[in-house]
Amino acid sequence: MAFDGIVTKAIVTELENNLIGAKVNKVLEPNKNEIILNLYNNRLNYALDINIHPENYKISLTTYSKPNPLNALNFCMLLRKYLIGFKIKSIKSYDLERCIEIEFEGNNELKDSVTYKLIIELMGRRSNIVFLNQKNQIIDSIKHIITKTREVLPAREYVFPEITKTSFLELKNFDEFYELISATSYTSISSNITETFIGFSKPFIQNILYNLDISDNTKDINDLKELYDYIVRIFSNFGTNNIYCKQLKNDDFTIDFSDFESDKMINFYIDDFYHKKEINDNFNNKKAELSKLILGSLKKCSKKLENINRKLKDCENMDKYRIYGELLTANLYKLDGNSNKVVLENYYDNNKLIEIPLDSSIPYNKNAEKYFKKYNKLKNTLSIVSKQKEETELELRYIESIVYSITTAKTLKDISEIHDEFVENVEIKKFSNKPTKKNKESDDFRNKIQKFNINNFDVYIGKNNKQNDYLTLHFASKEDIWFHVQDAHGSHVILKTNGKTPDEDTLYKCALLAKQNSKATLSKNVSVDYTYIKYVKKHPNKKLGMVHYTDYQTIII
Fold it and tell me: 442 in a domain, yes or no?
């Protein structure tokens, strides 16, 4: 993300115009990386969001509320103790560094006038929020850091992060700019500038080059002069509405200049941008975590089925052991001595000769008993394992349906519903014998289920097994029509008839929805079954979303 020194400078300029004199009403800490200051100034309420997440670090005004932990974290309690009731005296950034200083003034418990500083360092993994007293000593920080050059610990004097680059703001003219750029190893203009000057990012420089139609590899002094003038023009317009955030093609942004005034503050653009990114990141992370959990169960279930099939394969030979035992028993009078095998006539196969392996250490009758025991053991195994196979295959199909639900999930709520379903119906069997308490609110799907209108008929689509189960078995009436693709995981589609008879076009469009919301969405010639709800029943295994149905017709999509 291009949250560089230029963005920081633009945001701080806007904050100076709006927050000087603002009173601190509340201090919130939604998570270990974020502080939100609720402020009041000129009859307006503001919320200043300071986030030091390693990837989504930023500072901006925000309009989004966030849930807070019931028990406030230590740093939050510290800021509440010192800053509630204090006013912002000044806000400034250090050159073009991503470091911001907010100074607060007010009276302490003894009614003495004191000042405190909040230093926000936005530096990726090393981002931090440091709280200082008026002697520039650290009271505390969100992160305690010890390096060779500085210690960020309570009671230590605050030391600014080491600066190794040149300040563009201190340049007097283009000649100094050109001299510094020319002195670096020449790879590209954007690389040279970002390696030389504080606070510049490649997207910022590359966007200017694009606006000026200049190559990133140019060495022409006139091109460089144009670039320099454009940068100076941007800096000279900080604090005006001509500076705005520009969306780039690669889901990034940068600061740019326009002759037309922007109607949106940079603070709120940044707020919207990172809020959307945070939601997407949370969704992707939760989806990945849940996928890993469910795929683990799927792997275990598949392995269990493999073991069952192996046992069933062993049971294929059980009749052979019964025949061995019977032939040995029938021919005991002919056999004497000890041997490791015997050849007998098999009266089950036209008296063809059959060789029977033997244990020479025991008598022939004991060998027969041994084969009968083996036969009975395999017979019992077959009975038990056949039932286990049926149950395991159903479990496997059910887990696969949950995997499909994850692929179609689009929001955090969808992921949460799938997680609850998985825990209640799969994991709970492994880790607990206690039934889970159902949350009535989570079972109310009326406002969550997708609803369409087709030819003046209401059509509902379940997004996961819980919703499918609710729609088909609880929500739909007997005369409503149910749609589902054949032999594939997918959504239950319910056509509410309300006593009317839908035409063929309506039925076809509902079947099309069933195909589009199934695993077969990309397949050709998909069969979609439909029938009245009264012919759809809960599957005997009582798995969520699984049903069996009769009296159906089929539409080929």
Answer: no
CA-based nearest residue to 199, from 234, 174, 224? 234
Identify the CA nearest to 61 among candidates 108, 109, 14, 101: 14
Strand (E) or helix (H) holding 322 = helix 318-330
**Which is nearest to 50 in space by CA: 152, 142, 138, 165?**
142
Q: Which residues 6+ apart lie within 8 Å of 155 measured at CB?
A: 137, 138
pLDDT per position in the chain (557 positions), as tens?
Answer: 579 999 999 999 999 999 999 999 999 999 999 999 999 999 999 999 999 999 899 999 999 998 888 888 999 999 999 999 999 999 999 999 999 999 999 998 888 999 999 999 999 999 999 999 999 999 999 999 998 889 999 999 999 988 889 999 999 999 999 999 888 776 799 999 999 999 999 999 999 999 999 999 988 899 999 999 999 999 999 988 999 999 998 788 999 999 888 888 999 999 999 999 999 999 999 999 999 999 998 999 999 999 999 989 888 889 999 999 999 999 988 888 778 889 998 888 888 999 989 988 888 889 999 999 999 999 999 989 999 998 898 889 888 888 888 988 888 888 988 888 888 877 545 444 444 444 444 445 566 788 999 999 999 998 888 889 999 999 999 999 999 999 899 999 999 999 899 999 999 999 999 999 999 998 989 999 999 999 999 988 778 888 989 999 999 99
How many CB atoms lie under 10 A from the CB of residue 488?
Answer: 18
- For residue 211, being part of any structural domain is answered with yes
Q: Report the predicted TM-score, pTM, of the whole model to 2 decimal places.
A: 0.74
Claim to verify: residue 131 and residue 77 sit in the same structural domain: yes
Q: Is residue 117 left, alpha or beta, with left meaning phi > 0 and alpha meaning psi from -120 to 50? A: beta
Q: What is the dihedral of CA 148, 153, 158, 162, to 10 degrees?
A: 30
Determine the Cα–Cα distance for residues 368 and 375; give it in Å rounded to an integer. Answer: 11
Residues in the chain: 557
What's the DSSP call for residue 435? P
Helix locations, 84-188, DSSP H: 174-183
171: helix, strand or coil: coil
Q: Which runs of consecutive H residues, i.e. helices, occur in 57-188?
A: 74-83, 174-183
126 shares a domain with 15: yes
Q: How many CB atoms lie within 10 A of CB 529?
A: 17
Looking at the structure, do residues 344 and 456 belong to the same domain, yes or no?
A: no
Helices 189-196 and 202-212, interaxial angle, to 10°? 140
Could you tell me if 325 and 363 lie in one domain?
A: yes
Domain boundary among 105, 135, 163: 163
Note whether 138 and 191 are same-domain residues.
no
What residue numbers bound the domain in which 214 lies? 168-264
- Number of compact structural domains in the chain: 4
Residue ending a domain, among 396, 415, 437, is 437
Pairwise CA distance, residues 517 & 464, whole Å: 11
How far is Cα of residue 323 from the mean position of the Cα atoms in its chain?
A: 59
